[in-house]
Amino acid sequence: MAFHRLIPALVFAVGALAAGPGNAPGQVTAIRAGRLVDPEAATIAANQVILIEGGRFTAIGANLAIPRGAEVIDLSGMTVLPGLVDAHNHLALTYKAEPEHNVYYLTYVMESTPLRAIQAASNGIQMLDAGFTIVRDMGNAGNYADAALRQAIEQGWIPGPMIINSGIIIGGQGGQFWPTPEMAVDKNIVYPEYLDADTPDEIVKAVRRNALFGARVIKICVDCKPWGYTTDEIRLFISEAAKIGLKVEGHVQTVEGAKRATDAGVWSIAHDRGLTDEMHKVMAQKGIWRAGTETPISLTGHTTPERYKNSVAGLRNAWENKVPLTFSTDADYYVPGKTRGQVAIEFIETWKAAGIPAADILRAMTIGGYKVSETMGKRGPIRVGLAADLIAVAGNPLESIDALREVRFVMKDGTVFKRDGVMTPGKFFHGGPVNGWNIR
Length: 440
Ligand SMILES: [Zn+2]
Description:
Low-confidence stretches: 1-21
Number of strands: 17
Bound molecules: zinc ion
Distance between the termini: 14 Å
Shape: globular
Structural class: alpha/beta
Strand order of the largest sheet: 3-2-1-4-14-15-16-17
């Protein structure tokens, strides 16, 4: 351990040289796809062959010769498409009716970071099972369980989506909690669920701390409290994060907060409560991503008829204004009878209710997700040179988005995770970091 810590540069180099996840170099996998969807162009091509080697796509076309010795996977009766993205989830948080009455403040008090990290591993597997190959994990992960989850998946300990994690949500005094003075001041109870940062010095320090402990994006509370952050303070977050190559997502719940976040030019805005027609027009003009987290009314108890009506209307308005859209759920609770992935996919109901065409819903769930995650050049589209992630369904999601409710096949990094509707993740589990060790 000490040896590794002394030479992180060498460790990174070894990690880069490692074979990487997925099928081994020299071993070719050939997929026969009955139909292949390109969500960006909203087109579908019949009878395609997809070749994969070393965890990457190496060739895609109609009349490709399948090399001798290749493993052939027959999806000729299926529709193949790129993996899905949930642009806002919290895999290391699962609040529930029993015992905490769906109050996550109590979850945080009663469930340790190690327990939540194990839950995150399970939730990640459940997301992958539902076809999500990338998840942006936006805080509320205890003491950096999100970073541990990302590392464990990257190193090859467990299967899971690619994780873009935020570390601890940064807010001014209290985060989203209203603790008592004795618990907040004497016991520092807000941390590690939130990082307090109230002054420019503290803002800089908080961004650097998250980066040090493994964040891949910065998440801030723009207006969780009446004091919130000013436009200049948000700009400071953005410039400090940019030094490290990170983008800033603002949690926004008021129109005033949305104005400050859009004025400052955040990368993405989480939640739809502050997003008016005027804000949508600004977001479209500035290219600010919308992670609206529009809870469907079918998830009983997690929205109200009034809130749902506003979510549907807001999503419709955003689509009409051509705001860059992502599929985002904030699905951080237990719904008995459903996996975390099934809860997330349920959110298509709100998109359908907003009258958004299936092709545009699918584009938000794929291309929009890769762009907001900044993975486009490495992972996402089914394109030669990119990581071999894909899923398959029976129907055509360009005609009915409900086809995504039953993902039959999942491949991540060239390794089959789910086949014929059954998870078979054995090849993902290893007794060590087979993909190379990384310091975070
Ligand atoms: Zn959230």
